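Example record

One chain of 72 residues, shown exactly as stored in the release files.
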Amino acid sequence: MSKHLKTIPKFASEVEERQFWETHDSTDFLDWGNAQSVVLVNLKPTTKTISLRLPQHLLDSIKAAANAQSGP
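Predicted structure tokens for this chain:
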């Protein structure tokens, strides 16, 4: 049974659009079951140094997850 999707409104600005999506569920507007992966080959990765304050236990969990993904 397919769900009737709502129409995404037109936005006057990026700020207005951001505020809208902060208060609305995208599944009311998009059928994510039909979504397709896209590879954007011309994007250039950028890096920027930031500073975050995290609880030690969270930082330890992040490090453990990163080490598990990188393998031996």
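Notes: The radius of gyration is 19 Å.
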